[in-house]
Amino acid sequence: MTPARIDGLQYANWSEKIFRQMREGNVDAVHVTITYHENFRETVLNIEQWNRWFEQYPDLIFQGHTAADIQKAQDTGRTAIFFGSQNPSCIEDDIGLVEVMHTLGLRFMQLTYNNQSLLATGCYEADDTGLTRMGKEVVREMNRVGMVVDMSHSGERSTLEAIEHSSRPIAITHANPSFWHKALRNKSDDVLRALGSSGGMLGFSIYPHHLEDGSNCTLQSFCDMIARTADLMGPENIGIGTDLCQDQPDSIVEWMRVGRWTKAIDYGEGSASNPGFPPMPDWFQDNRHFGTIEHALSATGLSASDIQGVMGENWRRFFLNSFAAEG
Amino acid sequence: MTPARIDGLQYANWSEKIFRQMREGNVDAVHVTITYHENFRETVLNIEQWNRWFEQYPDLIFQGHTAADIQKAQDTGRTAIFFGSQNPSCIEDDIGLVEVMHTLGLRFMQLTYNNQSLLATGCYEADDTGLTRMGKEVVREMNRVGMVVDMSHSGERSTLEAIEHSSRPIAITHANPSFWHKALRNKSDDVLRALGSSGGMLGFSIYPHHLEDGSNCTLQSFCDMIARTADLMGPENIGIGTDLCQDQPDSIVEWMRVGRWTKAIDYGEGSASNPGFPPMPDWFQDNRHFGTIEHALSATGLSASDIQGVMGENWRRFFLNSFAAEG
Fold first, then answer.
1. In Å, how far are A21, A53, A235, B114, B269 from B272, measured between CA atoms?
2. Is there a contact between A277 and A45 (Cβ–Cβ < 8 Å)?
3. Are B123 and B150 in contact (CB under 8 A)?
4. Which terminus of chain A, N or C, has fewer Cβ atoms within 10 Å?
5. Whether the Cβ atoms of residue B288 and residue B25 lie closer than 8 Å to each other
6. Do A47 and B100 touch (CB under 8 A)?
7. pTM
8. Is B99 touching A (CB cutoff 8 A)?
9. Are the beta carbons of A41 and B45 separated by less than 8 Å?
10. What is the pLDDT of residue B242?
11. pLDDT > 70 fraction of chain B, expressed in percent and rounded
């Protein structure tokens, strides 16, 4: 079996160019964000756009539903696109929409995006009160239908409670360890240990605000951090989750941060002097650069099979256990 | 292979009782109406209700997606439920919702329900202008994804144009021939011949307003009509489509007729003196009575294999060619 190359999160301004770059980079599967603050109907409009891309570029991409689609992608030389949501807005206040969204292909859903949601507390709130009553019900329903709980943008307590409450391993698809770079979005050793010991997955982000030295972060520092995290939470529980926001205009990062929840500007991880998307490190500009990371990892002391795990095989195994209905 | 027993349309006030009666009647598959005038979001709420029934009664019913689910129903002693819509309200003004609704399981959609729609003209309008511009586009999209065009409530010209324009055979899931009983909802010889010669299907309705002598229609008259229709359009192009509205309160037939399109009352096939659901004939009260029809058909001169066709095998073959995506 050819080792898989899988990205645990992207939110690009999708185009034929980017789909072709996925192929050039031999990326077999990508978890793509299809929605942030959009309600159900608006999210369905985004799915309609994806359906048109699938119809338009059948030789490059197709919609992924199960882990078997990774093999199908490898066999047919295409990239399997798995849908995810960064906020639970798409299920509104209606637990029945969990199964509906799963039927439409949603395989990951964050319980929060920075703020308090109906389900849990985001990492930017002053107080984290953990999973709400509805949050516990929705996690159970996500477990039942086969939708991954993603806590990338959640607070510490909420994340620990999601790990505890979920009957299936959860994911933090795009974040890094706080021990390497302190940021509200990065995760404590406690969270990472609990995540690893429960069989969950961390996807390493290359979004500059999550990196030591930001856009100037070196590839060696990034790879050393991966090796240290493998020691902390197990080499089988880590992968890549680039958070690549390629070709997006800055209006998009404003939508991500502000949605419709405030009339003011919120800079999130940015600032008034640096409000837009930060430039990606020179060693990872787009999907063609996964090989650069894979090559650099071999200098870290990780074994060849551990590196295959990080580059995609760990996500493949996680997908296999995550997307089918229970029972 | 055990001959299938399939009903081409029901809209009951669903309950465990009715699902058990489907099993008692050995009904392998039913096309159920899940929506009339409901918009997309409201239709999804109806799907959520069905999802709860599927979760609640897994030993009795499951959602049908492909013709293979008929065999699965027979193998597991359950009834496969196939979704349909009696009006295109669920796709609103958005052709992208055709594929979304198909992903959610919709396998039949009427282009009209009595009135003019965005797609075509209903059988109660004074003038039938045929398929609209959007109607032609939507038929093409339904052909592409594998959703059956159902013209049960459409006008004559619209029906003939749908047969002509559709690249795949269409259905009239629940109506009878006008030659037997003149009613706006019943179909002319021209329509039935065009339907049969294009490989389409007619499902015979047992809704009293479509029957000779209404609720007093005899089983023999009904079966003789079936035999005559077999002569007219071919024994392989006919099946059952009972239009069973079991246990529905009269408020439902008012919703079916009036929706939100008028503030007045429209009696449809009823009248001010007979506004509610008419009583079903004594020989067909519920799903346990399919055997009664099958038995009576043997007195008509139809062959044993033609009778198997009418009772379900013709629908099975039609499902096989209708529900998968093109290409």
1. 67, 52, 75, 18, 10
2. no
3. no
4. C
5. yes
6. yes
7. 0.95
8. yes
9. no
10. 98
11. 100
Measuring CA to CA, which residue among A132, A114, A134 is closest to residue A123? A114
d(CA A53, CA A33): 15
Q: What is the pLDDT, as a whole number, of residue B294?
A: 98
Q: Given pLDDT bands bounded at 50, 70 and 90, which one contains residue B327?
A: confident
Residue of B103, B91, B112, B113 whose CA lies nearest to B42: B91
Cβ-based contacts of B42 with chain A (< 8 Å): none
- Residue B257, Ramachandran bin (φ over 0: left; ψ between -120 and 50: alpha; else beta): alpha
Q: Which residues of chain A have pLDDT under 50?
A: none
Q: What is the DSSP letter of A309?
A: I
- Which of B51, B52, B96 minimises the CB distance to A48? B96
B147-151, B159-163, B271-275: lowest mean pLDDT where? B271-275
What pLDDT score was predicted for residue A6?
A: 98
State the Cα–Cα distance between residues A73 and A245, nearest whole angstrom.
Answer: 23
Per-residue pLDDT of B234-286, as tens digits, reads 999 999 999 999 999 999 999 999 999 999 999 988 999 999 999 999 999 99
pLDDT at residue A1, rounded to an integer: 81
CB A111 within 8 A of CB A162: yes
d(Cα A322, Cα B293) in Å, to the nearest integer? Answer: 47
Could you give the ipTM of this predicted complex? 0.93
Does the pLDDT value for residue B147 go beyond 80? yes
- Mutation site, B41, B53, B106, interface A, largest A CB count within 10 A: B41
CA–CA separation, B108 and B146 (whole Å): 9
Look up residue A57 and give its two tokens: 């570029």
Asked if B41 lies within 8 A of A45 by C-beta distance, the reply is no
Please give the single-letter amino acid code of residue A69: D
**Closest approach of B176 to chain A, Cα-based (Å):** 36
> DSSP letter at A88?
G
**pLDDT above 90 for B1:** no
Length of chain A: 327
| pLDDT per position as a tens digit, B55-79 | 999 999 999 999 999 999 999 999 9
Q: Do B96 and A41 touch (CB under 8 A)?
A: no
Residues in chain B: 327
Question: For chain A, which domains are there?
Answer: 6-89+170-322 (3.20.20.140)
Give residues with Cβ within 8 angstroms of A321, minimum separation 6. Answer: A168, A169, A199
- For chain B, the distance separating the N- and C-terminal CA atoms, rounded to the nearest angstrom, is 28
A99 in Cβ contact with A137 (< 8 Å): no
Q: What is the largest CA-CA distance in chain A?
A: 52
Residue B153 has φ and ψ, to the nearest 5°, of -105, 20
